[in-house]
Amino acid sequence: MSSNFSLLICLFFILHLLAAASVTGRKIGIYEIKKGDFSIKVTNYGATIISVFLPDKNGKVGDVVLGYDTINEYKNDTSYFGAALGRVANRIGGAQFTLNGTHYKLVANEGVNMLHGGLKGFSKVVWKVSKFVIDGPCPYITLTYHSPDGQEGFPGDVLVSVTYKLEDHYKLNVVFKAKALNKATPINLSHHPYWNIGGHNSGDVLSQVVQIFASHITPLDKQHVPTGEISPVKNTPYDFLKPHKVGSRIDKIQDGYDINYALDSTKKMKHVAIVYDKKSGRVMDIKATAPGVQFYTANFVINTKGKGGYVYQPRAALCLETQGFPDAVNHPNFPSTIVTPGKNYVHSVLYTFSIKKN
């Protein structure tokens, strides 16, 4: 009996070790996918993009997203550098909403409001690496996460995935998917790369030229929560229907740009924005399936020590976060972000990089 018992104990520990070893992606790691001189690095902490390397007009390869040198710095980050955002990206006013007659009180993490999913949003959890393909014509990585019922106050279990894939001609394809398993719930997935296509350490983005394919914005109250209005950008500093330098009118806006644009196109995959940096020659063209995009000019990035010790300041980057409208759960006139069991959520973003030589 004692020998059998000892054998069972040994077998138990062996199985335990095997099980622990088989849970790929549970430990925090850094994963690179590469296609020639075009590459990105991702960590499964927050499903975060930590670098995007591509050449400039002279063939010099540089990193075009802000970030840090260590995972611990990402853990302590408050700017969401490169992170996946959810269960609901952007703000929910009063950290509360009512759905199907039930009132839900969420975890507030920005005053009385919820920002980017709360204190433990998807940017602050360890995702599972479910697929990692480094060979072939389109290398990619897929990360998954199970968000339990009640997490940060949200109803229902949700299965989430994000895939980062490199495609031909300097294309980065990002696909977010989600399934509500047992309750209707709001889902608005996005991510938060801080782009400086001149190079992460090249200074501010004020001279970079931006075009945004949206003729309306969703105005904000004093707490940066949408009022529910949808207002035209014509004759305002928010008008980027024609290309303008980021800094051409930024001083007319308190703090800088940080607002949701309602995209004009009704196509499934719609044109979002184009960014051009004359010095490097790099161009970034963005298309997405989401109805909106948050244009943000790193207004609150102040004396932030980043990669290689470079210190980031306000205007060091710009964000173009494709998304459902902020606080949509509290504004019936906004496109709905509610996902019911049996309905699949998909949000695709395509970044196409190119060179413009003068």
From TrEMBL:
It holds the Pfam family Aldose_epim. It catalyses: alpha-D-glucose = beta-D-glucose. One of its GO terms (biological process) is galactose catabolic process via UDP-galactose, Leloir pathway. Pathway: Carbohydrate metabolism; hexose metabolism. The active site is at H192, E321. Its EC number is 5.1.3.3. It is an enzyme of class 5 (isomerase). One of its GO terms (molecular function) is aldose 1-epimerase activity. Beta-D-galactose binds at N90, R91, H192, P193, Y194, D258. Gene3D superfamilies: 2.70.98.10. Keywords: Carbohydrate metabolism, Isomerase, Signal. Residues 1-20 form the signal peptide. Belongs to the aldose epimerase family. This is Aldose 1-epimerase.
